[in-house]
Amino acid sequence: MAEMILREALAKGLKEALDSDPNVFMMGEDIGEYGGAYAVTQGFLEDYGPDRIKDTPISEAGFVGAGIGAALGGLRPIVELMTINFSLMAIDQIVNHAARFRYMSNGQFSVPLLIRTVTGGGGQLGATHSQSFENWYASVPGLKVVVPATPYDALGLLRSVVNDGNPIIFAEHALLYGSRGEVPEEWYEIPIGKASIKRSGDDITLVAYSRMTHVALEAAEILSERGIESEVVDLRSLRPWDEETVLNSVRKTNRVVVIEETWKTGGFGAEIASTIQEKAFDDLDGPVARVGGLDVPAPYARNLESETIPSSKRILKAIAEHYGI
Length: 325
Description:
The chain is α/β, with parallel strands linked by helices. It has 12 helices and 14 strands.
């Protein structure tokens, strides 16, 4: 198996899409001449030209709307939003238009629009550039939301979403672009809505996604040193999300902690916890534990920002408080 970083896996998947379908094109801020704010599209403009790699003005509503129109017209646009924070400028286009056309046209129109964007904090970028809104979009019928945590998952999921006929939010965590992992040379795809068990265990289930999967794995290593074996479930997508894998794990371990980076209040973790309570209540040895971001705007100071983001230490504290282990 070859090793690559997540940035390289994404670039590979995007090039495959461009090479295999002349209707695929990309547009976004700084994706061409600059090579992408996170260097994912480095060299794309030279390889594919300005007709397929389009630098846009700083107008998210404008170019997301253009992407919707292009998708309705039969093209397959890939729109890059520099951060998910900037998606707020285009939220009317995303929620009221992209997500609604198929339903409101009774299936006559589809919007095969892929929106790649960057989520998460930890980069010391301040309160308006460090937020995680993928949980918001996961609440919208008509959208799909994908949240890869590893290079393997990023490539496999990207191959699936570029062939999907629905509008999709593909949220990439800012701190994972340099993360390294094995990626098979042979072709593979990962279906949207299928979770991955990143570590098997019988004592407690840790449910996470995106960068929090790695934090959950850190906590699992510490627990293992104490003789407690955790099962780490990486959701990989939030809409649809894999209830079956999560519930099967909870029924095996009888304990569960749900972890996510966004604010705990209103987070997607509440949806997961509620589903576990409704469908696996009798299998639980205690209440579902939740670990989320603190309900404050992200501080700029590194030491303060790190305190707002879930850590392995906070996961272990939640396990001790809820289950006494």
